[in-house]
Amino acid sequence: MMQLRCLQPQDAPLMLEWMHDPDAVRYMRADFSGMTLADCERFIAAAQQDTPSLHRAVADGAGIYQGTVSLKNRDADRGEAEFAIAVRRCAMGHGVAAWGMQAILQLGFSQLGLRRIYWCVAPQNVRACRFYAKQGYTPLKPDPDENGLLWFEVLNG
């Protein structure tokens, strides 16, 4: 049984694992290659505030960190946030990302009262595009925007 929980200090080494996996971060907008264990520990400490972004660990039944799901840049007035996800290589292909995505979307809509959750992906990130299609999501427009990104959204209701 998977669990969605607050990030914990012991998650830092496993978080750093995906950050230093070139295949996992190849198409992400941030450069994680220079991140250190201390950076992960600071991120986890800051994430306890849940503002302006909410970050949660996706953990397996034993509580072992498998990845992070986030609702970034939350705007309470507009009722929206940007979804983000990163999982460890060992979690890929085992339903962890799908479970984590659904769990954080549900949290955003039911507990935070969000009306819209959106995200983007580079079309070159074939694995992510296939993942979102398998989950039933299609880009808002078939062609990338001026920054070369495909945008997705889920509306509450």
Descriptive notes:
This protein has 157 residues and is α+β, with helices and mostly antiparallel strands. Helix content is 31%, strand content 26%. It has a six-stranded mixed beta sheet, with helices on both faces. Strand 4, helix 4 and strand 5 form a beta-alpha-beta unit. Helix 1 packs across helix 3. It is globular and about 40 Å long. The two termini are 27 Å apart.
Which helices and strands appear, and what pairs or packs with what?
Layout: E1 3-6, H1 12-19, H2 22-25, H3 37-47, E2 54-59, E3 65-75, E4 80-87, H4 96-111, E5 116-121, H5 126-134, E6 150-155
Parallel strand pairs: 4-5
Antiparallel strand pairs: 1-2, 2-3, 3-4, 5-6
Helix pairs in contact: 1-3
List keywords for this structure.
6 strands; alpha+beta; 157 residues; 31% helix
Rounded to an integer in angstroms, the radius of gyration calculated over CA atoms is: 15 Å
* Secondary structure: number of strands: 6
In terms of structural class, how would the helical and strand content be classed?
alpha+beta
Number of DSSP helical runs: 5
Shape: globular
> Into which percent range does the helicity of residues fall?
25-40%
**Arithmetic mean pLDDT:** 96
Spatial order of the strands in the main sheet?
A: 1-2-3-4-5-6
H/E element string? EHHHEEEHEHE
Terminal CA distance reads 27 Å
What amount of the residues lies in strands?
A: 25-35%
What are the low-pLDDT stretches, counting only 5+ consecutive residues below 50? none
| Major sheet | 6 strands, mixed
